[in-house]
Amino acid sequence: MSNNDEKPPLTCYVPVWDWAVRLFHLALILAVAGLWYTVEFGTGLDFPMEWHARLGYCVLGLVVFRLIWGVIGAGHARFASFMVSPVNAWRYGSAFLAKRQPRYAGHNPLGGWMVAALLWTLLVQAISGLFATDDILFDGRCGNGGRLHC
């Protein structure tokens, strides 16, 4: 039998993330895109600012959900499955640069640290948005979608 007649190796589908993590990913992308849109094209208008505030609450809720799910979720959703020590992440980075890194189902060690950085950044931005004010028309603490002061 020649090499051309050989069958390719079988591949199989292995789900890595559960439905909750997949839904989180999709919702977070949509919420962040909506936040960007309302800031970029909604300057000076009340309606986009209302949606900006709502989407900010959505991001805050999503990040809190992910932090909880990262502790009680299953398999690859848990932070323990992809968060490693900085030393191990450094070793992985060195192996990556040498093009001899191991393969991972889910996030590799550097990807795990990027997840932590992304969640931390989104959490800080969402919380800081709760206290944002321009001292004229907008007060993030009101909870009224960014309208006049309470």
Helix content: 55-70%
Strand content: under 5%
Rg, Cα atoms, Å: 21 Å
Poorly predicted ranges = 145-150
Task: Provide the succession of SSEs.
Answer: HHHH
Principal-axis shape equals elongated
Give the beta-strand count: 0
Sheet of most strands: none
What does this structure look like?
There is one protein chain. The chain has 150 residues and is an all-alpha fold. The chain has one domain. It contains four helices and no strands. The longest helix has 27 residues. The protein is elongated, with a radius of gyration of 21 Å.
Write the layout of secondary structure elements.
Blueprint: H1 19-41, H2 46-72, H3 86-97, H4 109-130
Helix pairs in contact: 1-2, 2-4
